Amino acid sequence: MEGINSHIQPVERGCLLISEPFLPDPNFERTVILICDHNEDGSVGFVLNRMAEISLSDIVEEFTDTNAKLYVGGPVEQNTMHFLHRITNELEGSLDIGEGLSWGGDFEKLKLLINIKQARFDDVRFFLGYSGWAPGQLDLEIKESSWIVYKPQNLAEIWDMDAADLWRMILKRMGGKFKMISNYPIDPRLN
Q1: Which domain holds residue 141?
Q2: Nearest one of 51, 48, 20, 54 to 34, comparing CA atoms
Q3: Which DSSP helix (H) or strand (E) runs through 149?
Q4: pLDDT averaged over 10-residue windows placed end to end, the chain, 191 residues
Q5: How far apart are CA 190 and CA 180, in angstroms?
Q6: CA 3 – CA 162 distance, rounded (Å)
Q7: Which CATH number goes with the domain that contains 170?
Q8: Distance between the two ends of the chain, CA-based, in angstroms?
Q9: Do 164 and 49 meet the contact criterion of CB atoms below 8 Å apart?
Q10: In this structure, is residue 185 part of a structural domain?
Q11: Looking at the domain assignment, is residue 191 inside a domain?
Q12: Using CA atoms, how far apart are residues 49 and 72, in angstroms rounded to an integer?
């Protein structure tokens, strides 16, 4: 069988990193990461399918009446909170990821928009920490087949998928050898 990255795609803002099935790092086991920035200074992204053990209301007092989910964005600076959103043209300072999806922006304005019901929690994802790579580090990890790079045709579709099943569902949609990989057991000794 060819290596999982025999057709390596370029890493760019808006692409997904899908961890190879037996990646030995527990921070990234069976994860899907949305790349939000990739340049000569390094790369930044957020794990889309790792739930935090605490809720958003535990961190942001203004959001006490919510069951909004909180994700672990990665192992870097888990004492910081970040957010991705689908609130167009409303949050100054947001970085466009593509297809109406943005990273960050004016958090005070976000809280106001949610509290006056001009924005919905369904349009925002909150993350503790982030995933980050030094210059050249991510490219090396991809060459070592730690990650499968995938550019989805529709980021909105990914946003609406069940986070618990995201890794497997994306691989299945990719088809071919990736569909087969989606069925690999977590522990190959159990096969």
Answers
A1: 16-180
A2: 48
A3: strand 147-150
A4: 53 94 90 96 97 89 78 96 88 90 93 88 94 96 93 85 93 91 70 51
A5: 16
A6: 28
A7: 3.40.1740.10
A8: 18
A9: yes
A10: no
A11: no
A12: 8
φ/ψ region of 172 (left if φ > 0, alpha if ψ in -120 to 50, else beta) reads alpha
| CA contacts within 13 A on the Cβ side of 147 | 25
Residue 3 included in any domain: no
Question: Structure tokens of 2?
Answer: 């060819």
3-state helix, strand, coil in the chain (%, to 5): 25, 30, 45
Flag whether 188 is in a domain.
no
Give the tens place of pLDDT for each residue, 93-130: 999 998 889 999 999 999 999 888 888 888 999 999 99
Whole-model pTM: value is 0.90
138 residue type, one letter: L
Provide the β-strand partners of residue 76: 130
Q: Specify the number of domains making up the chain.
A: 1
Structure tokens at 36: 């939000």
